[in-house]
């Protein structure tokens, strides 16, 4: 399997870099598996207090790997191996910081939203454009958006697939820190350096307490089941076909 995750250890924290630059770090099954395994490793390491996630070559992650999604059916979605990786990422106890430059779209945005803090460059691009492919987010993006920015802004993003900048995301309360272009990782390092001085167990319990107040299992289940059903629609096939040749899709509601 191609190695798509780079690791770096600092004083008390680790940096995991998504490294598929030719695909703008699109999340395929192998990358998600490697990421989940790396996070589980650092979650067990008592010397690591915080983990930073970032992307190579100026992008965080441009979304899911379209080549993997194109031929999936609803049945395939139920048995999708990526679900195990997403579940493993959700179980990480230690604080996670996303350092976002460039594109942070679709599954990449869902990954960033699974982090506990997001440091965004002002010119970063955030969005859940799945509706343009005849799909919806399937890894919790809708639920977390609604919690973070409220009904109206969440509807605005998921119904249209429109994107927003890092500055807009900060104004909306969608990210925790803003940085100048090219400085998101450095800012995340500074945040991590402060957090490693805290009490590790207290931080882990605090993280779980906040998540318990926000994450509602029934909402995530509905989102996932809806995503799986849409995989078998004609509109999904049309959306991906149009995306690949860069034309406007002709959706029929079938």
Automatic annotation (TrEMBL):
Its EC number is 4.2.1.17. CDD domains: crotonase-like. Keywords: Lyase. The keyword Lyase applies. It comes from the Bacteria. GO terms for biological process: fatty acid beta-oxidation. Coiled coil: none annotated. Pfam families: ECH_1 (PF00378). One of its GO terms (molecular function) is enoyl-CoA hydratase activity. Transmembrane segments: none annotated. PANTHER family: ENOYL-COA HYDRATASE, MITOCHONDRIAL, ENOYL-COA HYDRATASE-RELATED. Belongs to the enoyl-CoA hydratase/isomerase family. This is Enoyl-CoA hydratase.
């Amino acid at each position: 399997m191609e190695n798509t995750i780079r690791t770096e250890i600092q004083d008390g924290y680790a940096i995991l870099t998504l490294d598929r630059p030719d695909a703008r770090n699109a999340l395929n099954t192998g990358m998600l598996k490697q990421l989940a395994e790396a996070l589980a490793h650092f979650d067990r390491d008592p010397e690591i207090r915080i983990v930073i996630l970032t992307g190579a070559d100026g992008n965080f992650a441009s979304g899911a790997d379209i080549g993997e999604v194109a031929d999936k059916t609803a049945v395939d979605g139920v048995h999708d191996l990526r679900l195990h990786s997403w579940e493993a990422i959700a179980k990480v106890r230690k604080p996670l910081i996303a350092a976002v430059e460039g594109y942070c779209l679709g599954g990449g945005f869902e990954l960033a939203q699974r982090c506990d803090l997001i440091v965004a460059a002002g010119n970063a691009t955030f969005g859940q454009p799945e509706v343009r492919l005849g799909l919806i987010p399937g890894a919790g993006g809708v639920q977390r958006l609604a919690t973070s920015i409220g009904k109206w802004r969440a509807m605005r993003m998921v119904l249209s697939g429109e994107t927003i900048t890092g500055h807009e995301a900060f104004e909306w309360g969608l990210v925790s820190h803003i940085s100048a272009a090219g400085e998101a990782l450095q800012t995340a390092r500074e945040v991590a350096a402060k957090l490693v001085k805290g009490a590790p167990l207290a931080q882990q319990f605090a993280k779980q307490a906040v998540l318990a107040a926000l994450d509602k299992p029934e909402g995530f289940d509905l989102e996932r089941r809806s995503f799986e059903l849409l995989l078998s629609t004609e509109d999904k096939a049309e959306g991906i076909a149009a995306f690949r040749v860069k034309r406007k899709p002709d959706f029929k509601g079938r």
